[in-house]
TrEMBL record:
The lineage of its organism: Bacteria, Pseudomonadati, Pseudomonadota, Alphaproteobacteria, Hyphomicrobiales. Pfam families: Glyoxalase_3 (PF13468). Residues 9-145 form the VOC domain. This is VOC family protein. InterPro entries: Glyas_Bleomycin-R_OHBP_Dase, Glyoxalase-like_dom, VOC_core.
């Protein structure tokens, strides 16, 4: 049943790094990502972004002297622990999902300063979570960009490793009905595609793959995290690149030894802050 006219579109993927943002940023620069300058949220968290064409990757942490701000982030494992879906109207979407019986939090506003040509401007957001108590090891949430031009700046969208966009997200789940029910009812989701590779949900240009532990182990082997409590763990990202040969050169220069994987290259989660990265053309 369709519960909203808004589509389901992945806006960004969050890699949680706790109070290790300096170290994580250094690793991702060696992986060939051009990161934005450090951002300071009014909520107390800090970040760097790798901005692509349609979406972006966020390294999210908090300063050691955060005084308990964003205490919720402490409970999530290091790695891919957040998926943000885009909305043009968070308040109305939150109301529609609540009316449909889906568990959602109240929306909240926050911001962070952004330097644009020496002028400080404020990037503003409105977000809310869905399935806060149902999702393990992280969160699903919706993000309204009030100032998208401050995030998608052309100067930040060219990466030495040639990444153009996130195109896949892999989630290992012991209870696949939980994420599928939470994400059902959007205008562009007719039904989940169930096949031999698990469950596939289209979220704009990105495919969410929900796999069993057995299928994930068979496909990825030891390259993904396996030690998780609860029902879900987000374990890998598929990244579309301009040239796989050029990507391989950048990874080698950064000291990485990816393995060949399904016509692409796979960097193990242990080398990329808890999330496996699959680079492919």
């Amino acid at each position: 049943m369709v519960v909203t006219a808004q589509p389901l579109i992945l806006d960004h993927a969050v890699v949680g790094v706790l109070d290790w943002l300096d170290e994580a940023a250094a690793i991702y620069r060696k992986l060939g990502f051009a990161l934005t300058p450090r951002g300071y949220h009014t909520l107390g968290s800090i970040n760097h972004l790798a901005v692509f064409g349609e979406n972006y990757l966020e390294l999210l942490g908090f300063p050691p002297d955060s005084d308990g701000k964003r205490a919720d982030l402490w409970s999530y494992p290091i790695g891919l622990n957040g998926l943000a879906f885009r909305t043009t109207d968070a308040a109305s979407l939150q109301r529609e999902l609540a009316d449909a019986g889906k568990p959602v939090t109240e929306w909240r506003d926050f911001s962070r300063p952004v330097d644009v040509g020496g002028v400080e401007k404020s990037a503003n957001f409105r977000t809310f979570q869905i399935g806060k108590e149902a999702i393990s090891n992280g969160r699903f949430f919706f993000c309204q960009h009030n100032t998208p031009e401050l995030v998608w700046q052309p100067r930040n969208q060219s990466h030495p490793n040639g990444v153009l966009d996130i195109v896949d997200v892999f989630i290992v789940s012991r209870a696949p009905q939980t994420p599928t029910e939470l994400l059902g009812g959007f205008a562009n989701i007719a039904a989940s595609d169930i096949n031999s590779d698990g469950i596939a949900i289209r979220a704009g240009t990105v495919t969410l793959h929900i796999l069993s532990e057995v299928d994930a182990a068979s496909r990825f082997g030891p390259s993904i995290p396996t030690d998780f409590d609860g029902n879900e763990r987000k374990v890998a990202l598929g990244l579309k690149v301009r040239s796989l040969e050029a990507t391989a050169d950048v990874l080698a220069q950064g000291g990485f030894s990816p393995r060949a994987f399904e016509d692409g290259l796979l960097v193990d989660a242990g080398a990329a802050n808890g999330v496996a990265l699959w680079f492919k053309e």
